[in-house]
Amino acid sequence: MHYPTLEDVVGNTPLVRLKRITAGRGNTLLAKLEGNNPAGSVKDRPALSMLNEAEARGDIAPGDTLIEATSGNTGIALAMAAAIKGYRMVLIMPESASSERKQAMAAYGAKLILASKEGGMEEARDLAEGMIARGEGKPLNQFANHDNPLAHYRTTGPEIWQQTQGQVTHFVSSMGTTGTIMGVSRFLKEQNPEVQIVGLQPADGASIAGIRRWPEAYLPSIFEAQRVDVTLDIGQLEAEEHMRRLAREEGILAGVSSGGSLAGALRIAEQVENATIVFVVCDRGDRYLSTGLFAPEV
């Protein structure tokens, strides 16, 4: 009998219809529950894709040290993938990341290096590049690695198409590395060019884990602007409010960027009729409990 390994159960996540948060106008809101992946986020997909494809090319081999800058979920997913496959993983992240994220990475055996809160992901990326230049490990570089969107072209996009029986009209996703939206957009547009791809970026002053507005010099090279039809700015309080709504009205405990995705989906729903709107619930909310964002309202 063939039993699956942990690697085999990444992906094929549920797509569920919201019941209490409704859009009206004949629209259907569908949440893609990526927190159901083994390490708890959508990033499990590209993490394994980047390691598997690099191994297939002969770029890396078990026992190597891998270095990656991450704001959290990719780091947890890479730490898991490295544990499965036998790599040493060095992760560089802003010190502002939640304690649950840091502890999860360490639990998988990864070494953590913290960049300053002020320097953020840009500083983390610069530190990673310096270590790689000094020969301290091999890069994966999710921001420029086409095996990142490839994972979503091969899995996430086809799953959404199959789960909606080709009825999806809008796909709403946060933009961080942009791997998810690039890969899904490519697949869905090949099936139906009319599908609208909606990307989310933070409004001015917002700091939402997983959603970024990159300075031009740091824009991920995997990003292709023509693959996104609509870009929405999501505010900090808006994302946090909708994150709490997901938990309290739908029983979906997720992170702040997922709240932003719901907010974006509802904005789209105000403008259309009889649409099937899919949005990405990027991760689980249990890795944000220490932040106090779910604290009871007073």
UniProtKB/TrEMBL annotation:
UniProt keyword annotation of Transferase present: yes
Coiled-coil spans in chain: none
Needed co-factor(s): pyridoxal 5'-phosphate
GO molecular function, one term: cysteine synthase activity
Catalytic activity of the protein: O-acetyl-L-serine + hydrogen sulfide = L-cysteine + acetate
Recorded superkingdom: Bacteria
Catalytic activity, EC: 2.5.1.47
A Pfam family per the record: PALP
Record domain Tryptophan synthase beta chain-like PALP: where: 7-283
Transferase listed as a keyword: yes
Keywords of this entry: Amino-acid biosynthesis, Cysteine biosynthesis, Pyridoxal phosphate, Transferase
UniProt xrefs under PROSITE patterns: CYS_SYNTHASE (PS00901)
Pathway in which this enzyme or protein is active: Amino-acid biosynthesis; L-cysteine biosynthesis; L-cysteine from L-serine: step 2/2
Family named by the database record: Belongs to the cysteine synthase/cystathionine beta-synthase family.
Xref: NCBIfam families: cysKM (TIGR01136), cysM (TIGR01138), PRK11761.1 (NF008735)
The protein's name in its UniProt record: Cysteine synthase
Species of provenance: Halomonas dongshanensis
Lineage, opening ranks: Bacteria, Pseudomonadati, Pseudomonadota, Gammaproteobacteria, Oceanospirillales
